[in-house]
Amino acid sequence: QITLKESGLTLVKPTQTLTLTCTFSGFSLSISGVGVGWIRQPPGKALEWLALIYWDDDKRYSPSLKSRLTITKDTSKNQVVLTMTNMDPVDTATYYCAHYGSRWPNNWFDPWGQGTLVTVSS
Amino acid sequence: QSVLTQPPSASGTPGQRVTISCSGSSSNIGSNTVSWYQQVPGTVPKLLIYGNNQRPSGVPDRFSGSKSGTSASLAISGLQSEDEADYYCAAWHDSLNHNWVFGGGTKLTVL
């Protein structure tokens, strides 16, 4: 059974850097085709994909946020870390991490972590 | 504004069949497979369809997906009250960055 859980500060001040950790179990991030992604959802709004890291350490970022995001993995700890710099109140959202699976040509995010609400406020 | 366009809302009565559309381009739906996610209010998004029309185990066969050209659709037959939720389509977008994109979401109301 695959599970993921997000952790990190839930209240950050404007201009600060957000660091979120996704701790997972039930799969290995060293297996071909596997990845972990981050998705966020502002209150009452739509899902927004942020970043994805693959088993081979390839990384993909949202073009609109690329300059502010860094995604890394620690395979031995079963963890993926997302950092987002220069936080702003518009970044207030629930942040989810999710298991990424692929079997060409298909790919999907499943399952998702429970999410963590991050509030940006002074 | 997402590159995948969904209607903001849809509705139906119990037992009806409803469809939700997702319009994209040759850079996303036209060249990659589509997945769909269901988010019941207050809960975590759940994978409903992957590979355009494949259902993960546990998803009722009332849910079906299809794709034609640069558009995709999610159909729900035998609508039930518990189907009231937000539905999102998603796909890879083949640009300079090769990024994943979600549609803007469709809120389904069961009348």
Amount of beta strand of chain A: over 45%
Supply the helix-strand structural class of chain B.
mainly beta
Specify the helix fraction band of chain B: under 10%
Q: Give the oligomeric state of the chains in this entry, treating copies of one chain as homo and distinct chains as hetero.
A: heterodimer
Computed Rg of chain A: 14 Å
**How many strands in all of chain A?**
11
How are helices and strands ordered from N to C of chain B?
A: EEEEEEEEE
Percent of residues in helices of chain A: under 10%
Rg result of chain B? 13 Å
Low-confidence stretches of chain A: none
Can you summarize the main beta sheet of chain B? 6 strands, mixed
Largest two-chain interface: A-B, 24 and 28 residues
Annotation field: number of helices of chain B: 0
Largest sheet of chain A: 7 strands, mixed
Structural class of chain A: mainly beta
Mean residue pLDDT of chain A: 97
Overall description:
The complex is a heterodimer of chains A (122) and B (111). Chain A has strands spanning 3-8, 11-12, 18-25, 35-41, 48-54, 59-61, 69-74, 79-84, 93-103, 106-112, 116-120. With 122 residues, chain A is an all-beta fold. In chain A, the strands form two sheets. In chain A, strands 2, 4, 5, 6, 9, 10 and 11 form a seven-stranded mixed sheet that branches. In chain A, strand 9 and strand 10 form a beta hairpin. With 111 residues, chain B is mostly beta strands. Chain B has no helices and nine strands. Chain B has strands at 9-12, 18-23, 35-39, 46-49, 63-68, 71-76, 85-93, 99-102, 106-110. In chain B, strands 1, 3, 4, 7, 8 and 9 form a six-stranded mixed sheet that branches. A three-stranded antiparallel sheet of chain B has the order 2-6-5, with no helix packed on it. The N and C termini of chain B lie far apart (28 Å). Chains A and B meet through strand 5 and strand 10 of A and strand 3, strand 7 and strand 8 of B.
